[in-house]
Predict the structure.
Amino acid sequence: MHDPRPQTPTAMKEAAVSHPVMPTALSVVRSRRALLRLALVATTAAVVPVALTDNAAAFRDRDCSDFRTQRQAQRFFKKQGGPREDPHNLDSDNDGKACEHLPRR
Ligand SMILES: [Ca+2]
Ligand SMILES: [Ca+2]
């Protein structure tokens, strides 16, 4: 088994040199960074799933089959920013009319 502690007097001296008198200040900085990183990771881990869940809940893709009439689809399409925006792709031919194949009323 390997013992990490220095075995020879020379190795001990080298170890002492590579860890100077300020290890406390240095390790404080290091642990602060580690803490910050940990906090960042924890925050990201906590926020990202919530954000994803929120988005998924807020945006439920609608299709023409979700509407009974073209009029309903058109109303929804306009509410969602149509025809400039069409996040649900209700107007795939971009003529400003959503779900033309649905009955008018
Ligand atoms: Ca859609
Ligand atoms: Ca269309």
Observations:
- The two ends are 82 Å apart (CA to CA).
- The pocket of calcium ion (ligand 1) is lined by residues 61-63, 88-89 (CB under 6 Å).
- The helical segments are 9-18, 23-58, 70-79.
